[in-house]
Amino acid sequence: MLTKIAVVTILVRDQDEALLFYTEKLGLEKMDDVDFGEGNRWLTVTAPKQRDVQIFLQKADSFGADLTDSVGRAPTWAFNTDNCRETYETLKGRGVKFLSEPKEQPWGIEAVFEDLYGNKFSVVEEPGEAVA
């Protein structure tokens, strides 16, 4: 039986550039960085409070695949937050490009941003999670 999500793959053009975005702008932490040679590198980041789920920043033309046409076409993933409006302001101040401002939705307050490759992410504050 499947028990949990362990790794999510995001296709990127440049792993070092992506690492800076995900760590310096979004505040995630580098978890694994293993060079397998021949341009194949296992590079993952994770949320500080959820280290059991890793985001694999896969170079689109590594590990025997050429997925360069798929960069920026990943499905939207969601990050939870205690305060969507505050997170929005912090990330926007770091230069993160938002496609929508925080907005009340039936599932909570949500804002949508994209990374430097066009992959879309939601920041969601679930109902009852707001911090005063």
**The CATH topology of the largest domain:** 2,3-Dihydroxybiphenyl 1,2-Dioxygenase, domain 1
Strand content: 35-45%
| Total domain modules | 2
What is the CATH homology-level superfamily of the largest domain? Answer: 2,3-Dihydroxybiphenyl 1,2-Dioxygenase, domain 1
- Mean pLDDT over the residues: 90
CATH hierarchy class name of the largest domain: Alpha Beta
What is the helix content? 10-25%
Quickly give the CATH architecture of the largest domain.
Roll
Q: Termini separation (Å)?
A: 40 Å
Order of helices and strands: EHEEEEHEEE
User: Unreliable runs, pLDDT <50, ≥5 residues?
Assistant: none
* Biggest β-sheet description: 4 strands, mixed
Question: Could you explain how this protein is built, in words?
Answer:
By secondary structure, this protein is α/β, with parallel strands linked by helices. The protein folds into two domains: 1-62, 2,3-Dihydroxybiphenyl 1,2-Dioxygenase, domain 1 (Roll); 73-132, 2,3-Dihydroxybiphenyl 1,2-Dioxygenase, domain 1, CATH 3.10.180.10. 16% of the residues lie in helices and 45% in strands. The protein contains two helices and eight strands, in the order βαββββαβββ. It has helices at 15-25, 84-93; strands at 7-12, 29-37, 40-47, 50-59, 77-80, 97-105, 108-114, 120-125. The strands form two sheets. Strands 1-4-3-2 form a four-stranded mixed β-sheet, covered by helices on one side. The chain has a four-stranded mixed β-sheet with strand order 5-8-7-6, covered by helices on one side. The longest helix has 11 residues, at 15-25. It starts with 6 loop residues before the first strand and ends in a 7-residue tail after the last strand.
